[in-house]
Amino acid sequence: MSSISPSISSEAARKYAVVTGASRGLGRAFAEELARRGIPTLLVSSNHHISDLCEYLRRTYQVNSNHVVADLTRKEEVLAAADEINAKYEVFLLVNNAGLGGSQAFEATDIEYIDKIIQLNVTSTSLLTRALLPNLLKQGRAFVLNVSSMAAHTPIGYKMVYPASKAFVNAFSFGLRAEFKNRGLSVSVVCPGAMATSEGIRKRIEKQGFFGKLTLVPPEKVAQKCITQTFKGKREILVNPVSYFFSKIVPTRIRTSILTKVVRREVETGQ
Predict the structure, then answer these.
(1) Which domains occur in the chain, in start order?
(2) What confidence score (pLDDT) does residue 155 get?
(3) Which residue in 61, 89, 158, 162 is the catalytic one?
């Protein structure tokens, strides 16, 4: 087991890190990266098999790992999860990783699905952070890491309300950081870009051509860099320079046109 990050005290490391959407993909990578550093984890997921991941982390890294099963698209379950966490655990890190998106024509998208995206990406991120805030603030030094997306920088057709929801995550993170910077709470945000969270996703991104392959990053690498930079107090974490500079250098109108064509082709061909 790796030693605890020198950027946090051993006392803080005995407290818990909460990770939402922890059952797979980047959330699972966050959970394992934290456990590898000797940090106890509290994993939040709607998947009841999350207990298996906790058992794996305890066995592999000899570190505490517990779970809360909650559907974060439902306000009452978000608040119930927060109540349980506050009653049982001291929390010094919150990773708001759970998110929902996809690629569809907006007119073909179910209203219920649009609502779920907003509830998970916007509402649950806001409410869970607010509900856990007193717990975080009493730790002396605490951290929030919000997972956004490169889509936050570019309006994209066929992505429904996903880019707008992630633009909210960015603005929410920067505002929260400014408000609490002198109260021991550091807030960071990351826009990871394309990640190979499964073999199917990797193949789909690679079909986008050279640019797709160039911007593909393994979730384990994203998690490692994010946790390191969060504990250093980084405001905005950069893990994919190509995607980031594309979003900064190319005018928004051109980026929107290019990416909309790419996503439309994906939707029309089913690839």
Answers:
(1) 10-269 (3.40.50.720)
(2) 92
(3) 162
